[in-house]
Amino acid sequence: MRITTLGPLAVDGRPVRGDRLAAVLRELLDARGRPVSTVALADAVWQGTPPEDAAGAVQALVGRVRRLGVPVRTAAGGYRIPAGEVRVDAVTARGLIDRGRLALADGDAGTARDCADEARALFPEIPEPTGDRLFGDVVTLRAEAALAGGGPLDAADLRRLATRVPPDEPAAALLVRVLAAQGRDAEAFEVVERVRGELVERYGADPSPVLAEAHLALLRGQLALARPNAGTLPAAWRRAVTPLVGREPDLAAVGKALLTAPLVTVVATGGAGKTRLAAEIARSAGQVRVVELAGLRSPAEVLPAVLAVLGGPDTGLDTPAPDRRALSPSERLRAIGSGLDGLLVLDNCEHVLDAAAAVVAELLAVAPEVGVLATSRAPLGLVGEVVHRLPALPDDEALALLEARVRAGGTAPAWPRDRALALAHRLDNLPLALELAAARLRAMPLEDVLAGLGDRFALLDHALRGLPERHAGLWAMVEWSRDLLEPGERDLLERLAVIPAPFTADLAAAVAGTDVRRGLAILVEQSLLRLEEGVRYRMLETVREHGEARLDAAGRETAIAGLAGWAARRAVSLAPGFIGPAQLEALDACAADQDNLVAALRWAWDHDDEPAAVDVATALFQLWTVRGRHLEASAWARTLLHLDDPAARSRSALTRGRASGRPLPHADRLGWLCVLIGVNAGNTGPPRLTVLARRALRTLLAERPGDVSPRTAALAAAMPGLEQAVPDRSLADAAALITHPDPYVQGMGHFIRAVLVEDAGTRRSADAELAYRRFEAIGDHWGMGMAAHAAGHASGTDEWLRRSERHLALVGAAQDARSTRVLLDTHLALAGDAEAERRLRETAASARSDETDVSQAHLGLARLAWRRERPDEALAHADALLRAGPPTVFRIAVAVLHLWLGAGPRATDTLRQVRTEVLTAHDRPLLGAWAMGGAELAAHRGAASTARELWAMGTRVGANASQFAPQGRGERLAAALGDRESRESLLAEAGGLTGTALHDRIRALMDELLA
Question: What is the pTM of this model?
Answer without folding.
Answer: 0.56
